[in-house]
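fyi for ur records
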Amino acid sequence: MDIPNTNCGTQSKPELRTFLVQETLMELPESEIKNNEEHYKFFLEYGFTGIQNGDTSLCQQLGLQHAHSGRIDEPGDTQRLIDEANKYKSVCVTVHAGTGLESDKEIDALVEDILLNAHKNKFPVYLETHRSTITQDMYRTVKMVERYPDIRFNGDFSHWYTGQEMRYGKFSKMGVKFEFITPVFERVRFMHGRIGNGGHMQVDITRPDMSININHFKEMWVRSIVGFLRSAQPGDYLIFAPELLGHTPHYVFEYYHRGKKYQEGNRIEQALFYKNIIEDCWQEAQNRIKK
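which gave:
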């Protein structure tokens, strides 16, 4: 029961497309607030080709693609999300599944629901690596892949990097961890762009102390791109979407100075930095494929 890749319907070479997650535009500092149309045109000018969870009518008006997202809490939810995605003319849907408290049997029921409905509808449904879901644990996720090799992922690796503190222990162990989760890298077809450190999910990547963390994420993204390219068919494309969230979900750092509240960094500018980083990763992955 295969899950299709996002595909443009042509015989073009597999490619990278950069979307933006709508929530990146929420809860911005007052000086950065604009309406959706202004923001969408800005990112369109910089080569972004789609929005996840955005204004579907405005996306169609401006020629931007749309990606949907949602939750799967019980079998049957996948079909509902696919129906919503088709209503919105979305190219795919990324999903959070379960709570992380499920038995293997309960996990299997949710994964089978994803596989069955994605295959039946010939629609891309990508299971996200996310805290407080069935993919919160690297070990159980790899074991899930062993049982269901047709599953495909939205790789949001900040949840593992911080949530499972991947850097804990000797630095050399990072390579061992990357090798262990290779079955996941091989099945990534969508990525959320967010870089954290050992204790914080989302950190300003212009900070000088973030270089080693950035390199770790670049390596995970390159390996994911390699996994996509090794099986990609004409017309297939991989989506990378910066997801830099605001203060309500406690992602962006906030601090006070002389009684006024500030946010660390500029999330709009950083989304552009992320685009540059993933384009470098794409080139590196192509070089590795050629070797």
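The chain is about 40% helix and 15% strand. thats all i got for now
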